Amino acid sequence: MATIRSFIKFWALSAFALYGWLRLKSTRSPTLIILTYHRVLPENAPEREFEQPGMIVSPKNLKKHIRLIRSIGAVPVHLEEWLRKKKAQEPLPSLSVAFTFDDGWRDNYLHALPILRQEKVPATIFLVTKMVDTEETFWPEQVIRLLRTSGTSLNDPALEWLRPYLGELANKSTPFSLLEADRVINCLKDLDDATILDHLAAFAHTLPKKQAGTSEKSPPILQNGDLAEMAQDDLVKYGAHTQNHFRLNRLNSQSALEQQIVGCLSDLEAMRINSTPIFCYPNGDTTGSGKQLVANHYVAACTTKTGWNKLTRSEYDLHRFNLHDGNSSRARSLLATIGRSL
Ligand SMILES: [Zn+2]
Predict the structure, then answer these.
(1) Phi, psi of 118 (to 5 degrees)
(2) According to a count of CB atoms within 10 Å of the terminal CB, is the N or C end of the chain lower?
(3) How far apart are CA 185 and CA 334, in angstroms?
(4) Is residue 330 within 8 Å of residue 7, measured between CB atoms?
């Protein structure tokens, strides 16, 4: 049975890959493919033990992606530059590819930048401005650490808020597997981000200091020095990903929306680095007022919708392809990931 299933999977993947390759090779009118990455971590990086698998690509795979993209005739471009040329109705290559990195992880500087420089590939990093130059991390990573640390008592009164989201894992003791922790994170998305962070902070206060912190020596998010060094050769530009990575559809006031959208742009401008007024919606979530504010203050917005962008696509509804080791470690799987959504 398993053999039949893997046989079907192999041929389905091959069919999608062939379809993706044919569509990309035969495109004539200017088309933009936007690739989304999050973390870039070597295969043996200890951080992988505490991260959702769909967030990670290895440096080796990132380099493979760049080479494959070039081999099919696609031209790596700055997202900002492609949008400028589109607006000015200047000639554009038939197939362009823009590399984007969400969240502003420090590993982008450590492991992606050397490859981007070596391959001369421009990129946009979407920053969460209040996280930059801090030692903080996002709530999903805090939840994974909590669930994957053996000895965390899920019966602790400070974790009462978490129990309804554990489902059938409620009676399990830690450590959870990555897959189990991933499931809990998806359930927790019913809560708003600030509430989850408040609960986690309250729990951290109940822990001995050693357990409350992270064990990695380096802060997980980009620091000011990293941003300045990356901005030196204009290869990397910085876009906006809100001030605190709060999902816009979970905010309950206009002032909170303004803070996350307009405040983020002010922060970027105040940093005086290679900023670009392009917004990226956390988790792809938004509202009518959120879209309006973005349209009033930015030149474009990236979503989590998948697909390529022809000239007719609104610059405020840019589609992308999220890549990670699980869906793009081989040429066939990368082409299939793209082909599946064309
Ligand atoms: Zn994000």
Answers:
(1) -60, -40
(2) N
(3) 26
(4) no
| Backbone φ, ψ for residue 205 (5° rounding) | -65, -25
Tell me the two tokens of residue 36. 């989304």
Ligand 1 center to residue 88 CA distance, Å? Answer: 30
Residue 301's pLDDT band (boundaries 50, 70, 90)? very high
Ligand 1 centroid–CA 138 distance in Å is 9
Q: What is the pLDDT of residues 173-182, one digit of tens each?
A: 999 999 999 9
Which DSSP state fits 72? T
Note the pLDDT of residue 207: 66
User: Given pLDDT bands bounded at 50, 70 and 90, which one contains residue 213?
Assistant: very low
The pTM of the full predicted model, rounded to 2 decimals, is 0.94
Q: 295 C-alpha vs ligand 1 centroid, how far in Å?
A: 19
Q: How many CB atoms lie within 10 A of CB 314?
A: 10
Q: Which domains does the chain have, with CATH numbers?
A: 2-135+218-339 (3.20.20.370), 139-212 (no CATH)
Tell me which residues have their CB within 5 A of the ion that is ligand 1. 102-103, 282
pLDDT tens for residues 219-261?
999 999 999 999 998 899 999 999 999 999 999 999 999 999 9
How far is ligand 1, taken at its centre, from the CA of residue 296, in Å? 22
Task: Specify the DSSP element, H or E, that contains 10.
Answer: helix 2-26
Q: Which residue has the tokens 């362009």?
A: 96
Neighbours of 324 (CB within 10 A): 20
> In this structure, are residues 48 and 111 in contact, taking their beta carbons and an 8 Å threshold?
no
| CA of residue 282 to ligand 1 center, whole Å | 5
Under a CB-based contact definition with an 8 Å cutoff, are residues 76 and 35 in contact?
A: no
Ligand 1 midpoint to CA 172 (Å) = 29
**10, 11, 12, 14: CA torsion to nearest 10:** 90
